[in-house]
Amino acid sequence: MLTTISSVYAGESWHTSKIEKIYPLSTGDFVIIFTNPAEGCLHPNGYHYVTINESGVTAEGIRNMLSVALTAGTTGKEITANFENTSATCPINRLIVTF
């Protein structure tokens, strides 16, 4: 089931979907590609970047979010992500997985 919830804050969106791919980058950052593309993401391929020092993400935070994303992916659970919908990288700063 695909759910997109607009936040009351301009530029932020919530998106819920299963993960199709996780693409780790050499910088320590990573990309999430959802099975159902997020409405409002400006990236032409639907990539959502999780990047250190962007949208408040710290080095510790990115490790925690990668763990959450991998757990959701390996268990087949949907994940809910908060992302910036005014950037072409659709940067994520929060992830939720419900068991």
Tally of discrete structural domains = 1
Gross geometry: globular
Number of strands: 7
Uncertain regions spanning at least 5 consecutive residues: 1-8
Characterization of the model:
With 99 residues, the protein is α+β, with helices and mostly antiparallel strands. It has one domain (3-97): OB fold (Dihydrolipoamide Acetyltransferase, E2P) (Beta Barrel), CATH 2.40.50.110. Helices cover 17% and strands 36% of the residues. It contains one helix and seven strands; from the N terminus they run βββββαββ. The protein has one helix spanning 59-75, and strands at residues 3-6, 12-17, 19-24, 30-34, 48-50, 79-84, 92-97. The radius of gyration is 12 Å and the shape is globular. It starts with a strand and ends with a strand. Mean pLDDT is 92; it is low at 1-8.
Essential attributes:
single chain, 99 residues, alpha+beta, OB fold (Dihydrolipoamide Acetyltransferase, E2P), 3-stranded antiparallel beta sheet, 1 helix, globular
Question: What's a quick, concise take on this entry?
Answer:
Helices cover 17% and strands 36% of the residues. The protein is of the alpha+beta class and 99 residues long. The strands form two sheets. It has a four-stranded antiparallel sheet with strand order 1-2-6-7, covered by helices on one side. It has a three-stranded antiparallel sheet with strand order 3-4-5, with helices on one face.
Describe the SSE topology.
Blueprint: E1 3-6, E2 12-17, E3 19-24, E4 30-34, E5 48-50, H1 59-75, E6 79-84, E7 92-97
Antiparallel strand pairs: 1-2, 2-6, 3-4, 4-5, 6-7
